[in-house]
Amino acid sequence: MEPMRLISTLLLFLLITTGTSSIPTNRRKRVREPCKRLVFYFHDIIYNGHNSKNATSAIVGAPSWGNKTILATQNHFGDVVVFDDPITLDNNLHSPPIGRAQGFYIYDKKEIFTAWLGFSFVFNSTHHKGSINFAGADPLMNKTRDISVIGGTGDFFMTRGVATLSTDAFEGEVYFRLRVDINLYECW
């Protein structure tokens, strides 16, 4: 390579590398805004041996010291519960449901009152069609808990985001209501 061309190439290289090194490194993290925000309530009525007409969930697996009509002692450890709960737009159990929360939760720790959730919101209203799918740990003693939105169908095709759960009400070990604040970050 001739000397002038070599010098030109080196100068161009230095210009490019020094030009890029002067870019500030203290850039702010990009804050992502949700493309959709939703709030729903779901109402869970656990079968207790006496309420089969209005129960929306049932214990389907229990440890040897438990049974399938009363939640186990030791923070319900080992109980597996399936549910088909109504979803409403407000916190009234008797409001018209816009869909169903369908899935399961597993009480997965002896020392702490916590569960693991896997469920879908299946919509059947004029407002929404399709489903939103959720999965994650639910440390029940925390005021709010975040779980992952891992997909969906219909109006929520391949959506992803975060759902913040909060226990809105409970009556002993038979009824609880969850407020679900959903922030979707991938909307199609």
TrEMBL record:
It is found in: Secreted, Extracellular space, Apoplast. The lineage of its organism: Eukaryota, Viridiplantae, Streptophyta, Embryophyta, Tracheophyta. Homodimer. PANTHER family: DIRIGENT PROTEIN (PTHR46442:SF4). Keywords: Apoplast, Secreted, Signal. The keyword Secreted applies. GO terms for biological process: phenylpropanoid biosynthetic process. GO terms for cellular component: apoplast. This is Dirigent protein. Residues 1-22 form the signal peptide. It comes from Crotalaria pallida. Belongs to the plant dirigent protein family. InterPro entries: Allene_oxi_cyc_Dirigent (IPR044859), Dirigent (IPR004265). Dirigent proteins impart stereoselectivity on the phenoxy radical-coupling reaction, yielding optically active lignans from two molecules of coniferyl alcohol in the biosynthesis of lignans, flavonolignans, and alkaloids and thus plays a central role in plant secondary metabolism. Its main location: secreted. It comes from the Eukaryota.
